[in-house]
């Protein structure tokens, strides 16, 4: 099973680099389409757009219409969940799950693969940082517990571990949130990986024995870390390959300068 992860495309309309962000996103989707073997799924781990506006999501929808693999979207702090849902009306997984008290959350499980994919909503209405509390804890525990045999990969925008590279180690509003979230992720023993974004640079950590990865920012103008001059116009994304024996093996891919000459 192969998952392609895109993160932090920050599509916008009016910024000086708005066209570059569109180009980065479109080139990334073209690169993923050219992969052989093809990925089974594409997950966008949030900050899909920069301002949460319908016309930004319309641009995203136009780009993602070209994707050959199924696409799953996870909200980030820059996303507006109502506008996100409105832009992808045919995406059944974005529909609020009946039985949950608060339908504003976008969290869901995809059961179509050997590894379950759980998207978990960490976006806060009050902060750029992640939010977590008893209600979200209940939702996550319920998503994890809905199936009891398969391994699980959880996608959430904010990394639930201390990121010791970069200026800010903590990406949730309070340290206790990270502790409590980690306890739920570890409890079943079936969560084998957590994939995040938000930090705009690639890094890896651990939550107990769970691998925790942060994908770099797909928008070349918004990413952090040192990239050599020849890569400055080349977006990057991640591929997570799952093998039943070895678990996930991940790589960060550089998008081909010319998708037609993909190598
Ligand atoms: Fe971001």
Characteristic terms for this protein:
globular, 263 residues, binds fe (ii) ion, five-stranded mixed β-sheet, alpha/beta, six-stranded mixed β-sheet
Describe the structure.
With 263 residues, this protein is an alpha/beta fold. The chain has helices at 18-33, 54-64, 81-87, 134-145, 175-187, and strands spanning 2-6, 41-44, 71-73, 108-110, 116-120, 152-156, 191-196, 203-207, 210-214, 236-243, 247-254. The strands form two sheets. A six-stranded mixed beta sheet has the order 4-5-6-7-9-8. A five-stranded mixed beta sheet has the order 3-2-1-10-11, with helices on one face. The chain is globular, with a radius of gyration of 17 Å. The two termini are 21 Å apart.
- Element pattern in H and E: EHEHEHEEHEHEEEEE
Low-pLDDT parts are none
| Major beta sheet summary | 6 strands, mixed
- Give the cofactors and ligands: fe (ii) ion
Q: Report the oligomer.
A: single chain
Helix content: 10-25%
Strand order of the largest sheet: 4-5-6-7-9-8
Mean pLDDT, as a whole number?
93
**Roughly how many Å is the radius of gyration?**
17 Å
Percentage of residues in DSSP E strands:
15-25%
End-to-end span in angstroms?
A: 21 Å
- Helix segment tally: 5
Broad structural category? alpha/beta
What is the overall silhouette? globular
Task: Tell me briefly what this model is.
The protein has about 260 residues and is of the alpha/beta class. It has helices at about 20-35, 55-65, 80-85, 135-145, 175-185; strands at about 1-5, 40-45, 70-75, 110, 115-120, 150-155, 190-195, 205, 210-215, 235-245, 245-255.
């Amino acid at each position: 099973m192969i998952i392609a992860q895109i993160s932090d495309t920050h599509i916008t309309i009016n910024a000086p680099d708005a066209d570059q962000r569109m180009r980065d996103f479109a080139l990334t989707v073209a690169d993923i389409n050219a992969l052989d073997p093809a990925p089974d799924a594409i997950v966008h781990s949030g900050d899909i757009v920069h301002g949460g506006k319908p016309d930004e999501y319309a641009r995203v929808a136009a780009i993602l219409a070209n994707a050959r693999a199924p696409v799953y979207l996870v909200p980030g702090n820059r996303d507006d969940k109502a506008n996100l849902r409105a832009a992808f009306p045919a995406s059944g997984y974005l529909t609020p799950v009946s039985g949950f008290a608060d339908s504003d959350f976008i969290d869901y499980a995809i059961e179509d693969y050997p590894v379950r994919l759980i998207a978990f909503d960490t976006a806060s209405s009050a902060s750029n940082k992640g939010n977590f509390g008893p209600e979200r804890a209940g939702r996550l525990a319920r998503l994890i517990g809905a199936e009891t045999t398969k391994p699980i990969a959880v996608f959430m925008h904010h990394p639930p571990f201390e990121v010791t590279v970069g200026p800010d180690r903590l990406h949730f509003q309070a340290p206790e949130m990270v502790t409590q979230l980690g306890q739920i992720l570890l409890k079943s023993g079936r969560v084998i990986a957590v994939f995040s974004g938000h930090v705009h640079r690639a890094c890896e950590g651990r939550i107990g024995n769970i691998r925790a990865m942060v994908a770099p920012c797909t928008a070349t103008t918004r990413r952090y870390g040192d990239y050599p001059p020849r890569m400055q116009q080349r977006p990057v994304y991640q591929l997570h390959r799952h093998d039943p024996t070895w678990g996930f093996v991940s790589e960060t891919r550089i998008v081909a300068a010319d998708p037609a000459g993909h190598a």
